[in-house]
Amino acid sequence: MSASIVVRKLSFWAFVAFLVAYVGILSMAMFVFQFGLGELPCPLCILQRMGMMLASLGALYVVVRALRGELLLRELATGLGLAILGAVVGAAISIRQILLHILPGDPGYGEAVLGLHLYTWALITFVVVIVFACVVAVFAQDVVPVAPTTPWQCTAVYRLLVA
Fold first, then answer.
1. What pLDDT, in 10s, does the model give residues 29-57?
2. Is the separation of the CB atoms in 60 and 13 below 8 Å?
3. For residue 37, what is the DSSP state?
4. Quick one: which of 57, 136, 61 has its CA closest to 90?
5. Which residues pair with 117 in a beta bridge?
6. What are phi and psi of 85, to 5 degrees?
7. What pLDDT score does 127 carry?
8. Three-state DSSP state, 150
9. Which stretch of DSSP H or E encloses residue 9?
10. Measured distance CA(8)–CA(14) in Å, rounded
């Protein structure tokens, strides 16, 4: 197996990890914080979640097209564009919320996790998505994701994304 194929397969799994991470973040925000702890999201939090969903749609588009064997450079650019668009919109909303609570002595909105509020963590994830998408875009010709060909790996991807 050549190095190029290995990089392209790793690129596919990086997009799957991107999806799993954002689905996990959104699930934690909804089921643990919102329903479990009773912290209702503010309108800015809901908009940040929508930005995460849009960014996830970009990664999902890339993964689905790769699994179908139809992923070309144009489709990769479309998926990266959706991810960057969602991340930029979400980051702008996160920055807005951070600036609302920047005064000393302001308790912020909701509970802090590891010393940072959820909207600050959201900004960090949006920056990570933007950096990831930009790096993939720079090396796009060499890292067009290739889906696994063995049936058990495809089944694992489907179960991971659906379950």
1. 778 777 777 777 788 888 888 998 999 99
2. no
3. S
4. 57
5. 112
6. -60, -50
7. 95
8. coil
9. helix 3-27
10. 10
**Residue whose C-alpha is closest to residue 153's, from 12, 32, 22:** 12
DSSP 38: -
| Residue 112 φ/ψ, nearest 5 degrees | -85, 145
Neighbours of 23 (CB within 10 A): 16
Say which DSSP state 129 is in. H
Nearest-5° Cα angle at 51, 49 to 57: 105
Tokens standing for residue 107: 């308790």
pTM: 0.82
- The one-letter amino acid code at 23 reads V
Whether the Cβ atoms of residue 17 and residue 60 lie closer than 8 Å to each other: no
How far, in whole angstroms, is CA 145 from its chain's centroid? 16
CA distances from 143 to 7, 120, 138 (A): 6, 31, 9
In a 10 Å sphere around its CB, with 0-12 CB exposed, 13-18 middle and 19+ buried, how is residue 153 labelled?
middle
What does the pLDDT look like over 91-122, one tens digit per residue?
A: 999 999 888 888 787 776 667 668 777 888 88
Are the C-beta atoms of residues 49 and 97 closer than 8 Å to each other?
A: no
Give how far the C-alpha of residue 46 lies from the chain's centroid of Cα atoms, to the nearest Å.
16
